Model the fold of this input.
Amino acid sequence: MSAALKFFAGVVLAGVLLGAAAVLYFFNPSKYGFYPVCQFHQLTGLNCPGCGGTRAVYQLLHGHVLRAMQDNALVVLSLAALAGRAAWFGAKRFRRRPGGPFLPPEFFWPLLVVALVFTVLRNLPAFSFLSP
Amino acid sequence: MSRYNIIGADGRQYGPVSGEQLQQWIAEGRANAQTQTFAEGSTEWKPLGQLPEFAGCFAPRTPPTISPPVSRSIRKTNSWAMAGLIFGLLAFFCCCKFLFGLLGIIFSLVGLSQINRQPEFYEGRGLAIAGLVLSILSLLLAVLLVLVAMATGNFQFHWGFHHF
Done:
């Protein structure tokens, strides 16, 4: 992929994300129903690891971190981790130090385990605070 | 003692010199196996490497082992590519088309870029591409299903949330 194509793709992606964030900012997912539904929740009544994620981002956009955590702590913490990694990665690259890939593949399996544990826990009555 | 003439790299003839002197020149790198040599008493010019008395000078040294950092047989399958395929399959054949489709696209792209950057460390390009295709199709399908639902009036607004 040429550098120009990568740049263009990056711009398009940034635009789409900004657009989505703008829509989310003005249209509360709890009040407007045009957002995609969770099929897992519809079929089983249980919460998937992403349930509450859209609402969580809405709360984050409005500055309510605690309410966002109550809606979906996994999404909030993942976003925080991504932001932290981006800062670290950017600093390393800026100083021209080797830093490896942005998302090291060895992190995928632990991440999956955390997501699964989160899913199980949030559907248990004792941990209902993990669900919106 | 035999004496030898050689054609140097500059095209000029050198010698006659003793065998010992020529061995010295080989060691210094001023003559090599291709150097045209005329041995005293011989009838023609020959490459130095073909003269039996100098065969020992050009015995192949075991080349320094410059092994690649990771040999081909132990390339790891990139985890993100694998994840992309799994989410693509789940999205397409099972459920959560929107979420899994999105994740599938992201993971497949991440895996693909990592594999392309370091192909000596990672494999799984096929997995990543398959995951990407399935995920994109799933997203398109999800959008299509939503549009159909809206058109037929089956789309539920204010779903689920307020009923806790």
